[in-house]
Amino acid sequence: MRDGHGPVRLLAPPLRAIVDRLTFNAAITETGRDLDARSRLRYMKITVRSAVGSDLPSLLALYSELNPDDAPLTQESADAIWASISSQRGRTVLVAEADGVVVGTADCMVLPNLTRGGRSILFVENVVVTDSCQRQGIGKQLMEAAMRLGESAGCYKVQLLAADDEYVHLFYESCGFKPLAQGFRRYIDQDQRSGVLV
């Protein structure tokens, strides 16, 4: 329920349940036999597009998978933050849909630059694919879309930071990224443990 003051509570069924139902129907239609949830994804149409305001509940659900320890936002806060994000020049939040259901996202920001002949940099943050849809090429499609965004904006590189996780590093390397630099961060809120936030 949403009352405008409390935490956002999604009225829709959990994302995983929706994806499982859609993938089951798609696999039965295509093959005439039952397949496990991950195998069913192979028969679904995956599209990557720019997010719109109606995607906000799906984005919040994905972000809760990415950072499960985060406190939920109020609807008012979420709406205000989305308004700020969607009005930023050079900012594109990509979403990946599996048969019309948002199952992944990547937040892309073009940063103007006074070096490299004035060519911009595309930064990518908050990349997440819902757990039941991982290892199906959806994340790779999101990263390919981010590369196309960077190319169309005249960027000379696409850059991101990744969690200290070998699986995540292997994923980005499979997308053509190279570990060419050492990333550093310092959290503003020193009360937060640096190992919790990514």
For the structure shown, list the relevant keywords.
198 residues, alpha+beta, Aminopeptidase, 5-stranded mixed sheet, 6 helices, globular
Estimate the global geometry from the Cα principal axes. Answer: globular
CATH homologous superfamily classification: Gcn5-related N-acetyltransferase (GNAT)
Going across the biggest sheet, name each strand in turn.
Answer: 1-2-3-4-5
Structural class: alpha+beta
CATH architecture: 3-Layer(aba) Sandwich
Low-confidence stretches: 1-34
User: How many helices does DSSP assign?
Assistant: 6
- Broad CATH class: Alpha Beta
* SSE topology string: HHEHHEEEHEH
Description:
The chain is α+β, with helices and mostly antiparallel strands. The chain has a single domain (15-174), classed as Gcn5-related N-acetyltransferase (GNAT) (Aminopeptidase). It contains six helices and five strands, in the order ααβααβββαβα. β2 and β3 form a beta hairpin. It is globular and about 40 Å long. The two termini are 29 Å apart. Residues 1-34 have low confidence and may be disordered. One of its GO terms (molecular function) is N-acetyltransferase activity.
